[in-house]
Amino acid sequence: MARVKVKGRDLHVVASDAARGSSKVLSLRILIADDDRDTAQTLALVLRDEGHEVHTALRGDEVVDACRLLRPEVVIMDINMPGMSGYAVAHELRERHGPLAPLLIAISGVWTQSADAALGKAIGFDHFLMKPCEPRHLLRLLASLRAAPDASGAAGG
């Protein structure tokens, strides 16, 4: 169990059963995009502890180029970001890559209405989560990709 201090609060992070029990799960390349540095770093710590390769971006307009260079299997993105909104980034990634786009997960603390989630899905997000997001829920979303024998980008880089 790891202990993390964020904004004066202690968080306890426990590795998931999948990471503890099996060496056959895949490490995913994940890009986290959030203008709140503490949120991005805390989420990155949790995902690195699970064995993933994690990169962060603090501006929306950095995400498209980062995806081109890093070729992540998963992008976890805030909606309300400087430079380019998460909605605009998701739309552009879907336009460029179609079904080969990374798994797109929105996490928002501002855009929290069901209409916001519906818009996110229509634009191209696969999942739309509200802040604060329970790490176990996010790890469950990633579990199916980790178990897949041919997760996109995992073999060919």
Short summary of the structure?
This protein has 6 helices and 7 strands. The protein is of the alpha/beta class and 157 residues long.
Please provide a written account of the structure.
The protein has six helices and seven strands. It has a five-stranded parallel β-sheet with strand order 4-3-5-6-7, with helices on both faces. A two-stranded antiparallel sheet has the order 1-2. The chain has one domain: 3-Layer(aba) Sandwich (Rossmann fold). The chain has 157 residues and is of the alpha/beta class.
Multimeric organization: single chain
CATH topology label:
Rossmann fold
The CATH architecture is 3-Layer(aba) Sandwich
Distance between the termini: 31 Å
Average of per-residue pLDDT values? 80
What's the CATH class label? Answer: Alpha Beta
Can you tell me the CATH superfamily? Response regulator
Strand content: 15-25%
Biggest sheet descriptor: 5 strands, parallel
Using brief descriptors, characterize the structure shown.
single chain; 157 residues; alpha/beta; Rossmann fold; 5-stranded parallel β-sheet; two-stranded antiparallel sheet; 39% helix; disordered C terminus
Topology:
Elements: E1 2-6, E2 9-13, H1 17-21, E3 29-33, H2 37-49, E4 53-57, H3 63-70, E5 74-77, H4 86-97, E6 103-108, H5 114-123, E7 127-130, H6 135-147
Parallel strand pairs: 3-4, 3-5, 5-6, 6-7
Antiparallel strand pairs: 1-2
